[in-house]
Design goal:
Number of strands: 26
Helix content: 10-25%
Largest sheet: 17 strands, parallel
Structural class: alpha/beta
Shape: globular
Distance between the termini: 126 Å
Amino acid sequence: MSRVPARHSKPSRFSARTSTRARVGPPAGPRKRSLIAGALRHKPAWAAVTVAGLALIAAAGLAVPHWLGQAPRATAMNNAGGPGSSQASAGPVMQLSGQAGTGAIRNATARSSRPRSGHIHKRRHAHARPPAPAQPAPAPPPPSQPAPSSGAGGSVTRHTDCLVSPHSCGFPDATNTGADCSSLTPSGSITVTTNGTVISGKNVTGQIAVRASNVTIENTCVRSSTFYPIDFTSGSNLTIRHVTVTGSGDCQRAVEPEGDGVIMDAMNVSGCIDGVQMSSNDVLENSYIHDLLFPPGSHNDGVQQNGGSHDVVRHNTILNPHNQTSCVNFTTDFGPISDITITGNLLNGGNYTVYSRAGWGNGSDPTGVSVTDNHFGSADVFGLLTADGPVAWSGNVSDATGQAVGR
């Protein structure tokens, strides 16, 4: 069988892809190369144009599968990442391999077949603005001390051991309550029967009896051995402001309010068995009650109420170091008691410092009683509170330590 000379043989269409010869046999003359191989060898520029054109054809799925005799490789499409993945977009657009045409076509196909949206997404991700650094959370404000009442008080320089110097903690004492008796006009007992009367600047020896409404007693001193140095027997709306009451002898309590509605503000009370009495719609505030009279068998209370409602005991200094009965006493001896507020006081002494009890002659318990934000000393005998029925208790502290105290 005669052999066809190699120089007359038709070039294999696979010779451009492989480095092996198409046929085995001695060459008979100059070997004819394929168009692609010749272009790659002698015409680099034309080679690039040819490869790019083939890449476009391959992308359209037309001639390349037939030329190569195989389907396009799926991995060239996504390189284990799919269209737009970081692996598919990482390679260069053109890479000529050592075997003419092979690597260039594959890489060009992979690049041209990837959707543009993937490339846009990649760029947007690569140039995404970094998140702004988180701002540190603001530090919580330091805890503040409760502001003293706007009434009797002064510059606050301490918050514990207030019993030593009440005004240093903003509490009432002799420096910020009562009146300067030495500068006032001396007077005997006074009886008020005209509505709207104002008593001011008097230094009274005896008693002030009020039988009218809308009366004001201010900047006045009363020195008395009677049962009730200020006796409000009828009328309504009595205001007592910056008044000093000094009891002696038979003084039972500085103020006896049988009328309706008394405001007792910045009083300085001493020398009576009890400080003041309350009834209904009364307010005792910014006052200093101290040095109560202590005859044998006495039952001392800084402030007491035996039947009534809507009373407020606020921001006072009440001292009863005789261990007998209380600083504040609300007991239903003569009628029901309701809506009582005891707040912001400096209290020290008594068998119990605060009473909220059912009385002997009236079995009902006081209702609506709150005891809040008070400073308690340690001169009590049995405890800070004795109560029948519920009492709201919060914010109360030891005067010595500033720590919260229970009932």
